Amino acid sequence: MSATTIHFVRHGEVHNPDHVLYERLPGFHLSERGRRMADATGRYLTANPQTNTAAAVWASPLDRTRETADIILSHLNAARIDRGEPTLELNTDERLIEAGNEFRGKRIGHGEGALWKPQNLKLVSNLYKPSWGESYRHIAERVGAFASEKIDEYRGRQIIVVTHESPIWTFRHLLETGRPEHNMLLRHAALASVTSITFDCDSHQVMSITYVDPAANVA
């Protein structure tokens, strides 16, 4: 039985001193701590016998995911050079982008983002079926389409995919429960964590899901 594993990595911490919801906005980069988190995860992936031979690295096109992926790639490519193998380049795909959100650019709980305001309160009345932006169903469908394509493209191999909390957890929740809707407060996808999903190449059925947090102790 041939299997493809997709390692979904969440980006590292973002420099955001004003605490705004940056969503898909440009110009939000990794903080120094975020770069250390990406470095820790890059070192973990390079030390792992499976992931250090990954066939490709993909990322959301946003700044923070590409920066995280570049740091991971620097570790993987150093190992590939040592083995006399060609280096990998970063690929991006719009289907991995952060979820759309009507609060983007606002500070949640303050000013225009204050939840007590009538126009905002009605948006967050149901955490399981958010009405403040892109639906969980659509998020899961676009990530699922990406995954299905890559299962075939990288048949029997491993790839690393750097994306965001919402796409990772929404897709995982769909695979584990049959539905993408969930309570956003109960997500389990820490910054720079790795959610690894192994699929049967023929049926595209899930064989296993594992989770590690290599950057948990990064200060």
Automatic annotation (TrEMBL):
InterPro entries assigned: His_Pase_superF_clade-1 (IPR013078), His_PPase_superfam (IPR029033), PGM_Phosphatase (IPR050275)
What CDD domains does UniProt report for this protein, alphabetically?
HP_PGM_like
> What Pfam families does the entry give?
His_Phos_1
| Residue ranges the record marks as coiled coil | none
A GO CC term? cytoplasm
Top-level taxon of origin: Bacteria
- Which SUPFAM superfamilies does the UniProt record give? Phosphoglycerate mutase-like (SSF53254)
Q: Which GO terms describe its molecular function?
A: phosphatase activity
Q: What is this protein called?
A: Phosphoglycerate mutase
Organism of derivation: Bifidobacterium moraviense
* Lineage per the UniProt record: Bacteria, Bacillati, Actinomycetota, Actinomycetes, Bifidobacteriales
